[in-house]
Fold these 3 entries.
Entry 1:
Amino acid sequence: MRRHLLTCLNYRVVEAGWSSALIIEDDADWDVALKSQLQTFANRTRTLSNAGRNESLWITSRTPTHSPYGDDWDLLWLGNCAVPPAPDNAQTFTGEDQGETSEMHFVFPAQGGMSCLYAYAINYKSARTLLGWLMDVDAPTDFAISNYCGHFRCIAIWPELIGSHKPAGSHVKDSSISDTDSGWREKGVTRNVLHSAILDMLEQMGHRGEWNG
């Protein structure tokens, strides 16, 4: 994973000069209402950037921005599996999805203690600093990026907007890096996602969640 990420950062972002990029895992899933969720997340992100978390680390800006998420961030952690308690300055929101109210989301400056890299966004400048950081730090990639966030401007959301989908079938296929039990899942599931885009797609195709990856 580290080698693939370094290649992506170097050739797809830095050398190509992309202004930003969203990196997601191949088993990522999200709510069918992701577009509206991201619009609200962008609003909360700009609020945090304007408020500032620490004058020495977080440069506040009230000028027009080039991105709907503002320009004062290095990494947006959209998909994770563990976070520290949200600080007092966390922004919150809930959403209406197909007549159901989703659970409250917390948007906050991430300064370490994070894990899992289901999805995250970077910009051109942070891709360059992260590239150097990952080459110098000997740790699992998600822990290394969590440490990176202790020194740079990262914003996280919990519960995650993009998660890891577990397909129908054997639990053995759930992870390639950790041991799993030998159980069986009748229907695919994505934690913290109210209406899975994958399951919605499968239902429209007539599979009704029976796809087993």
Note: Confidence is low (pLDDT under 50) at residues 53-64.
Entry 2:
Amino acid sequence: MIDDIDSNTPMATDAEAMPTTSGHMMHPNDPENPQNWPFLRKLHVSAAAFGYTFTLLFGATCYTTGLAGIMEEFDVSMTKAIAGYSLYIWGIFFAPIVSPHITEKFGRNIPYIACTLGLSFFTLGAGYSRTFTQLAVCRFFAGFFGGPNAVQIEGTFADVWPALYTLTYYSFLTCASYFGAAVGAIVGYNVIPSEDWRWTQYLTLMVALAALLLGTGAPETYGRRVMVIQARRAGRTISLPPAPTGVTFAEMARHTVVNPIIMLASQPLVTMITLYLALNFGVLFSWFISVPVVVTTVYGFTPHMGGDAFSTALGGMVVGAIFTIIIDQISTRMLVKKNLKGGMFDIEYRLISAIIGACLIFASIFWIGWTAKPTVSFYSPIVGNGFYVVGSAMNLIAFISYLFDAYPPQGTLSALTSAACGRIAFAGIIPMVIITAFTNLTGAWALSVFGFIALAFLPFPIILLIFGKRLRQGSSFYNKNHTTPLTSLTMGEMHKMEEMT
């Protein structure tokens, strides 16, 4: 822990403080800079962040395994029961807006614990609900209070791991959300058929407790907060520049409310990425509603077997992450070797994975839609679902890691907020209408609608690969003097990469 470090540890003065490759204000040689921590300490804080985010998504999808019991107990329709799922996701919608400001005030550790406790409190309330209204309200606030954990994990990984490998470490942190969602459904379907639906909430509480235990003793990673702790321990005051997310309420609102809306409407780069990720997540989170319905009605699966159908999602996430990491490592080494003298290259190379992912998303939607029928083996749509997750993961990892460094810090914050809110909003909307669409259009044509939209969006990553740099540099949110960790390598990083190549 930070407090275990000798109080005589050198601390950067204001004059010495300078950004490191991760955007820290801490001196790059400061041993308390999270970038300089021992590997096991980095691994601990990363695992803790993983656990908190895993819990949040586990709670989202585990609920869907108790829909039949909720409908029966509260005498509500399928659509209304699904609302408890969507409301949880819509609670998470506010996380990208408020999380940056919470971090500036409290760092990362305190919000992780407080948010997990808040999620647990309202999850417990949902488990003891006596009316559907009570259940719906508790589900919304469980997502609202737990949501910041899904945002904090990105900052935690950026705090401790080298920025040169942004796309690689984002692959690992993305697993937290995908694994949590898939395991929530698998575990739920293996427990709920023989138990009360309320166990969907009790199971989430157990996972939350495990996450809190895993996070015990994890040190603070946010650079500004670490510097405050250093100064307090040394008995001195420290003067830090104004928080980049804003100091006044008006400044905060501008960076995480007003500017994200402006960028969504005026920046083609942000518009394309937000729209594509909205489609990606809308379809992805609708699987937790539609897949069990399809495999039980078309193939006669039991609820237990329906849950096992999500095992391909776990495999798909692993494959997607591995492919993305391999592509990133090969591309980075080739580019560094090619530009070794200047150390300059563009971040658009990160979009290679997005192009492959877009093709898989488009193809797998039609694959699933037109093979989920009694005359075709049930393996076909289930495997197709796995391929969708491969494409979904590659798409998300590439787009978000690209936005990380597309603009200067404040522009990046607004762009990421826009993309996050867009995909979360549609992750809640599509599940609400998916069963109605399947009923009115049939599953094949309902999914074909999404397939044709995916086809229309297919050129987006290709356009950004070719014209992304021009779009970024022509933006009013771009600073011509802005350099990113991947376009301005230190000499040490250059030599390291030269040895690797």
Note: The chain has 19 helices and no strands.
Entry 3:
Amino acid sequence: MSKATKYLLVSLPTSISPSNDHDEALTALRSGVTTDLGTVTPFPIPEFKIGTLDALVQQADELAKLENSCEAVVAKVGDSLKTILEGDEAKVSQQKTVNDKPVDQYLKTFTWNKVKYRADKPLGELIDTLQKEVISIDNDVKTKYNQYNQVKTNLTNLQRKQTGNLSNKSLTAIVPPSLIIQDSEYLETHLVAVPSQLNKDFPKTYETISPWVVPRSAQKIDSDDEFTLYAVTTFKKYSQEFIHRAREQKWIPRDYKYKEGGREAEQKEVERVAKEEKKLWGEALRLGRTGWGEAVMAWVHVLALRVFVETVLRYGLPLSFVCGLVRTTPKLAKKVRGSLDQSYSYLAGNAFGRDKKGRIQKDDSSTSADMQAAGQMGEEDYSAYVCYDFEIN
């Protein structure tokens, strides 16, 4: 992605304009953010059904937690997309849309989704709906991603068996059936992968590492850069001891049972799992794309509710406010807040004062009392006006 973007949702009472007019208040808000710091666009928020003050304070707390959950889900789904697309940032960026729009365009043209989240419903009901939706998105994407990951791992293991070395690859296409003793009451064939550095000593030692190894039974089957594969015959009674002693010699016993048609069945299994992996990749990608967009949409609606609830708590009734979306950068966000503080610190009453040079400064004792009254106790970045910042990556 290009230069990082930071957004601020700012709500101010329309009383910041002499006429108390909505449009004039928006113009006043724009004047508080110069073009070198960012741009301001209207962010319309409906008026919702308001309950008691206690309910609003509790809902403010619930919404703060829900916003954190939304942000976490958006990040997790984004990570899943990144894994599915093997870290290709350009391709990942193409998948990150909301309602088929780039995030920036969606935010600039935001309207409350009255179909999914009916504005005539009580606030508590809307919060509950959004919470359930976010949990559902998280579970759906996680389930599909885990399903894809499991099949991908299975395919990787199958492919490794086709291409690994003689200590771990499939032996179906390597071992001739005639070398394996079958249906014998007393004898058994063992396959042993011997590391190259130990290969010279193997013919001299294999007969004596355990009792009842058939003399001169070792037959070389195949070799690669790391191992040589041998077949050795022992009496069944001493098979487990031979396997144990072989491991002590740092040889690798291979578990192999001859099966008619095994080679063809193995190849078909690789093809089947490869086909399933491709199908699940597409499903995981589609679900990741839609899940990310829906999670962002839910997040933005939660932010809108946070702004509304905090606006009621901060500015009181009758409700008359203007909300704007400030688009800036992480580096400039602090300057934007400083500029807005200069213009609207008076909204906090005694919570903000000025130093000897006329610069805005906070009165911590007054701020603490105001925060408690506004239901914002515990928020670190208190301001004289309602403001929430966020980044969507």
Note: The radius of gyration is 34 Å.
